[in-house]
Amino acid sequence: MTQYYVIGGILKNINGHEQFVLACTRNAEEPYIIVDDIIRYFIIWQNSHLYLVEDDYSLSLVAPSPEAQQMGVKAPEKVWPDANLLERLRAVIKHGTSPTTPDKNGKGVT
Q1: SS3 category, 87
Q2: Which residues, 6+ apart, have CB-to-CB distance to 21 below 8 Å?
Q3: 101 within a domain of the structure (yes/no)
Q4: How many CB atoms lie within 10 A of CB 44?
Q5: Tally: H helices and E strands in the chain
Q6: What residues make up the domain containing 78?
Q7: Cβ atoms within 10 A of the Cβ of 72, count?
Q8: Greater model confidence, 11 or 28
Q9: 50 forms bridges with which residues in the sheet?
Q10: pLDDT, position 94
């Protein structure tokens, strides 16, 4: 079974409320999804933590980033995505639209 990974953490939004966010190309675009066979080619972003997407779409912390923690980005052990994030994760994984999801030749799908 394929394993999927995402990078993210808890940040404060402009209203001062904390929320879990995933790294994506631009605000409100689809999150990056990293597949198990290409995870070794990626370095965790210094301001994000690495999470495994579980079968129920919850996220389990795999590798916290010390740099992100020093910057105040929290790394919860387990995250249950809200409805909006859950829908985005399902769509990207189902349709393979993430820029980092490889096609059959190992190249990213755009």
Answers
A1: helix
A2: 8, 9, 10, 11
A3: no
A4: 19
A5: 2, 6
A6: 4-95
A7: 11
A8: 11
A9: 7, 63
A10: 81
